[in-house]
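F.,

This is the one I mentioned.
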């Protein structure tokens, strides 16, 4: 029986995508070949790569606006350094909202001066800093839209004249926004778009080519753009499954429909966290992420009981990250509302059984 999968990443993907992707392993496009054994230069795969890049731009509303989409390897972690390699000449500004921002900052420091404009480290990253100033003489401003580990999300992005770079790994394609505000967006596929192994980069071409350093080919966005994301062998299967997921998002009504689904799931769970006398939320209420809900037991007395109950309810992946503890329910695009209902029912049942 399929589990209710709350895993933070790699994570649940649509059941229809699993079906089609498994078929392609045996016989891709009725070619008599597995997708795993064909050349990445074959017409069949080239069209997968083109469709994936096109769908990414289309869903984000960025077609014909000077952007290129790339599917690269090395994860979002590689982007921490690739961004700085390509954009940091003298100084960069970073907002520190968690583990991933902290890692991005560490890499960028290797390339130049770093201005950390604000940080929520003082409260173990349970909120998003606001009202900070972005220096106008920085080469770019970097932020993390959704903090997967701490369960916070930036709702309003700052206005700035310098290029805006955003790590959207865990909420890309989950909510509507004016994506043309951003000059570079990157996202590891395995949170909301596909399997592990590829990373989407959407970059406005005119911000590139401005640093004086030499950039190794594999690190150079311009090289990857020049080769249509096929400078070397791409992660063929990961790109294919991502493409299927992007098709699924489009068929369901695009990002707008995803946002509505996600809002309904988030409301159901957060309302229960707030109502239930056994639990308390971790993230500041106004910054709560619809993607990753973090919460704790008010007392650990009945922890064993609750853990046993959700496992018996066929729920997977509910344990919080070790730096926060407690619980984390990741509710990415593909998680059905019914799975959230099962969790909420389990929480209610637990309160009845163990509450006073
Ligand atoms: C998971 C995650 C990363 C790291 O992704 P990798 O693909 O494992 O390198 C970076 N940023 C955010 C926001 C994440 O959730």
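My design for it:
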């Amino acid at each position: 029986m399929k589990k209710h999968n709350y895993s933070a990443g790699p994570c649940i993907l649509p059941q229809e995508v699993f079906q089609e992707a498994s078929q392609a392993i045996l016989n891709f496009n009725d070619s008599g070949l597995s997708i795993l054994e064909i050349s990445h230069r074959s017409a069949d795969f080239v069209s997968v790569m083109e469709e994936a890049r096109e769908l990414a731009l289309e869903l984000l509303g960025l077609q014909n606006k000077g952007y290129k989409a790339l599917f690269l390897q090395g994860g979002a972690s590689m982007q921490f350094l690739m961004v700085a390699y390509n954009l940091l000449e003298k100084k960069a500004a970073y907002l520190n909202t968690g583990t991933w921002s902290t890692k991005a900052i560490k890499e960028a420091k290797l390339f130049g001066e770093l201005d950390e404009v604000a940080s929520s480290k003082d409260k173990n990253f349970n909120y998003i800093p606001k009202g900070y100033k972005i220096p106008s003489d920085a080469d770019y401003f970097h932020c993390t839209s959704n903090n997967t580990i701490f369960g916070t999300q930036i709702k309003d992005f700052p206005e700035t004249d310098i290029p805006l770079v955003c790590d959207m790994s865990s909420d890309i394609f989950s909510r509507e926004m004016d994506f043309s505000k951003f000059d570079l967006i990157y996202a590891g596929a395995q949170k909301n778009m596909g399997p592990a192994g590829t990373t989407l980069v959407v970059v406005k071409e005119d911000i590139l080519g401005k640093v004086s350093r030499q950039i190794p080919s594999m690190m150079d966005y311009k090289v990857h753009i020049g080769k249509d994301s096929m400078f070397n062998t791409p992660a063929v299967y990961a790109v294919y499954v991502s493409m299927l997921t992007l098709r699924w998002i489009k068929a369901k009504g695009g990002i707008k429909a995803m946002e509505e689904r996600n809002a309904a799931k988030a409301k159901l769970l957060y309302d229960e966290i707030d109502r239930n006398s056994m639990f308390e939320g971790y993230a500041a209420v106004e910054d709560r992420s619809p993607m990753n809900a973090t919460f704790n037991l008010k007392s650990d007395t009945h922890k064993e009981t609750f853990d046993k109950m959700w496992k018996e309810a066929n729920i997977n992946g509910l344990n919080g990250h070790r730096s926060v503890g407690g619980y984390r329910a990741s509710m990415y695009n593909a998680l059905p509302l019914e799975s959230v209902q099962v969790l909420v029912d389990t929480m209610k049942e637990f309160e009845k059984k163990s509450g006073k």
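The chain has two domains: 15-251, 254-354.

Talk soon.
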